[in-house]
Specification:
By secondary structure, the chain is of the alpha+beta class. Helices cover about 35% and strands about 15% of the residues. It has a 4-stranded antiparallel sheet with strand order 5-6-8-7, sandwiched between helices. Helix 4 crosses helix 7 and helix 5 crosses helix 8. The chain is elongated, with a radius of gyration of 23 Å.
Length: about 270
């Protein structure tokens, strides 16, 4: 268990960790008169006790990551204003026009690093990531998805896909230099929500680095329904949770389009 106990030399018994722990592993030991860590319940290793302790008195090991502290962490609202964040979010576009340039490995690593810090239900982290960067493989996969869609889903949208393909447009991955696929070897409904949040983190991080992204829902539908494409062509061994393209946008956007208001009840 990564959380081992409490450094009694540092602990001031402020009780903040007890109030914060979602699984009540941190308790007040009445006999000893101090905060103690109980291993009688499963710890979800969320790390909130580490974050909230003013004295850095939580003892831990094997978390496979470094604790981070920086100026302004106690008041993140001071790091970025609402107005700046709002404009940044409104500027986010689903990119369907990419340059051919590949993204340097160190830049992709920054995006993946941001995704691992996305919140998950009960801190369960079962997601894995697969990146396809081979141009021919992306093209083959796109063709297979279009063919599968036309075979199983007739109608107007099948015609749209075919018309785009005749125009030399990749209607699935838009000739993006990279495709990121989140998947898991364990089946759980919460994994899909966790993946959606992680991809959102990655999309906004990508935007800070001059990159564009797009959630590919059609590919997700085919991957979840067609085992041959998922396993034989994409080589994904588990359950696909989300797919997005990423690359350098080849187009500029000059305004943020309008969106309808969120339908809200109970607000007064």
């Amino acid at each position: 268990m990564p959380i081992i106990g409490i450094d009694i030399e540092k602990c001031t018994n402020c009780l903040l960790c007890i109030k914060e722990c979602p699984t009540s592993n941190l308790i007040m030991n009445e006999e000893e008169g101090r905060v103690s860590f109980s291993s009688s319940r499963p710890c979800i290793t969320c790390g909130h006790c580490i974050s909230i302790c003013p004295q850095n008195a939580i003892i831990y090991k094997g978390l496979k990551d470094e604790v981070l502290s920086f100026e302004g962490i106690q008041d993140p609202n001071k790091s970025i204003s609402y107005e700046t964040m709002y404009q940044f979010m409104r500027a986010k576009r689903s990119i369907r026009q990419y340059k051919k340039d590949k993204i340097p490995k160190e830049v992709l690593e920054k995006i993946l690093d941001s995704m691992r810090y996305a919140p998950t239900g009960s801190n369960i982290r079962q997601m894995k990531c697969f990146i396809i960067s081979d141009t021919e493989k992306i093209k083959t996969l796109s063709e297979s998805i279009v063919n599968a869609w036309q075979t199983t889903m007739t109608g107007e949208y099948s015609e749209v896909l075919e018309n785009k393909r005749k125009m030399g447009i990749d209607p699935i991955f838009y000739k993006a230099p990279h495709v990121i696929i989140l998947y898991s070897n364990r089946s759980s409904p919460s994994n899909y929500m966790n993946a959606a949040i992680a991809m959102t983190y990655g999309m906004f991080c990508a935007q800070t680095l001059g990159l564009g992204t797009c959630w590919i829902g059609l590919a997700f539908i085919i991957f979840t329904s067609n085992q041959d494409i998922r396993k034989e062509i994409a080589r994904i061994p588990g359950e696909v949770l989300g797919i997005m393209t990423i690359g350098y946008p080849s187009a500029k956007y000059y305004r943020a389009p309008p969106r309808p208001p969120l339908r809200t009840k109970g607000f007064s």
